[in-house]
Amino acid sequence: MRKDAFPATAEGMPKINRSEIFRKAWRDYRFQVKWRDDQTFDRILFASCLSDQWQYAKMDRAEAMERAIEAARLASASPAERRAAEIRAELRDMEFGDFIPWQRRSELAAELARLAA
């Protein structure tokens, strides 16, 4: 999800776009029904698709809130704390990527250790 995909409510919580959730649930439902011989509407399958999409939206909303809280915390942090957060984020991104550049990872880990000391 894009970082700006959730406009905030008055309380600061990101909004959930219900029409997008239904659109994605229908897309998932149509994809699953396409491979079946029976083309009649399956209420239970659609309910499952809709439930899944709600869960994904809630997870995205929670991640957006975490990013907002982290950004607010870093706004008042020292430059060393900001750099440490950037390094941690880059290391975390490396873990979830397809390839880990080990030389760069060791450089970042060493810099993080220096900042922590």
Number of strands: 0
Return Rg in Å: 21 Å
Q: How far from one another are the termini? A: 35 Å
Q: Please outline the major beta sheet.
A: none
Q: What are the secondary-structure elements, in order, as H or E?
A: HHHH
Question: What form results from the Cα inertia axes?
Answer: elongated
Protein described:
This protein has about 120 residues and is mainly alpha-helical. The protein folds into two domains: about 1-75; about 75-115, no CATH class. It has helices at about 20-35, 45-75, 80-95, 100-115. Helix 1 (about 20-35) crosses helix 2 (about 45-75) and helix 3 (about 80-95) packs antiparallel against helix 4 (about 100-115). The longest helix has about 35 residues, at about 45-75. The protein is elongated and about 65 Å long. It starts with 17 loop residues before the first helix and ends with a helix. The mean pLDDT is about 85.
Quick overview:
The protein is mostly helical and about 120 residues long.
What is the strand and helix layout of this fold?
Elements: H1 18-34, H2 43-75, H3 79-96, H4 102-116
List keywords for this structure.
117 residues, mainly alpha, 0% strand, elongated
